[in-house]
Amino acid sequence: MTGNLPDSDPADRDPRERGMDRRSGGPALSPWLIIGGIGLLAVAVYVISAL
């Protein structure tokens, strides 16, 4: 018995499924982008509360 599952070869997959693969190896959102957004939100709350 082999370790290969049926229909697990990339050449055997449906062409529509290939389009669903991730196009990049990186994360969807950079952690620094999330941290920067939280920081920007904190600054906005500070400025609004100081008015």
How would you portray this structure in words?
The longest helix has 20 residues, at 31-50. This protein has helices at 15-18, 31-50. It is rod-shaped. It starts with 14 loop residues before the first helix and ends with a helix. The protein has 51 residues and is mostly helical.
Write the layout of secondary structure elements.
Elements (H helix, E strand, L loop, with lengths): L14 H4 L12 H20 L1
Features:
51 residues, mainly alpha
Count up the helices. 2
Distance between the termini: 72 Å
Uncertain parts:
none
Could you report the average pLDDT, rounded to the nearest whole number?
A: 76
Structural class designation: mainly alpha
Task: Report the helical percentage.
Answer: 40-55%
Q: Could you give a short account of the major beta sheet?
A: none
Strand content: under 5%
The number of distinct β-strands equals: 0
Give the overall form.
rod-shaped
> Any idea what the radius of gyration is?
22 Å
- Helices and strands, in order, run as HH
Please outline what is shown here:
The model has no long low-confidence stretch (mean pLDDT 76).
